[in-house]
Design brief:
Chain lengths: 113, 115
């Protein structure tokens, strides 16, 4: 992800709505992508991942879409719940490189009951 | 599976103190662990890659003599913040992975506050 070290963008949604969180990455050699959720005062938790040979992957209430042409990744959360409120980070990895994930700047999701 | 435990969760100490943070992989072996630093409302900044049995690889701008890393076994890496000062106050997080193209699993972080 493109990490610029600035304050986090925020997405506010109502409970029950669908949420879409976007992420751009810059390394065209990246071939593995991960979404993490970080609650306040805790470490990031793995949500879902996708490899570059796919453009969509679904989990429980979450879907990740990958557009390699424009180097864009999105996380869709269906029927967003207050417990989904957290900061969401994307990370990209180049298996031809160091295997070290590069984290995006993160998006703060606020779900209003 | 793939649990990473980090200890302590919070440290408050005086300026000049050295602080050791432990990162353990509880149910898997990790030849490589990563140490991150995170400021409020910002992303994770990689500090160093901890390699079992060898020297850590530090990112540009991170002082290796300030942030000592030891990875003495396949399940434990430690980060020691030496002679800590208020500007070292931050949230430090470690992670470990189970293999190539597998997600990193993170500890719950250590909140370090230097008075």
């Amino acid at each position: 992800g493109e990490s610029v070290g600035l304050h986090l963008p925020t997405l506010s949604v109502q409970e029950g709505d669908n949420s879409i969180i976007n992420c751009a990455y810059s390394n065209s050699a990246s071939d593995y992508f991960i979404w993490y959720k970080q609650e306040s005062g805790k470490g990031p938790q793995f949500i879902i991942d996708i490899r570059s040979n796919m453009d969509k992957r679904q989990g429980q209430r979450v879907t990740v879409l990958l557009n390699k042409t424009v180097k864009h990744l999105s996380l869709q959360i269906a029927a967003t719940q207050p417990g989904d409120s957290a900061v969401y980070f994307c990370a990209d990895v180049s298996s031809g490189g160091s295997y070290i994930p590069t984290f995006g700047r993160g998006t703060s999701l606020i779900v209003h009951p | 599976g793939a649990v990473v435990s980090q200890h302590p969760s919070r440290v408050i100490c005086k300026s000049g103190t050295s602080v050791k943070i432990e990162c353990r992989s509880l149910d898997f072996q990790a030849t490589t662990m990563f140490w991150y630093r995170q400021f409020p409302k910002q992303s994770l900044m990689l500090m160093a890659t901890s390699n079992e049995g060898s020297k850590a690889t530090y990112e540009q701008g991170v002082e290796k003599d300030k942030f000592l890393i030891n990875h003495a076994s396949l399940t434990l890496s430690t980060l020691t913040v030496t002679s800590a000062h208020p500007e070292d106050s931050s949230f430090y997080i470690c992670s470990a992975g189970t293999g190539v193209n597998q997600p990193q699993h993170f500890g719950d972080g250590t909140r370090l506050s230097i008075l």
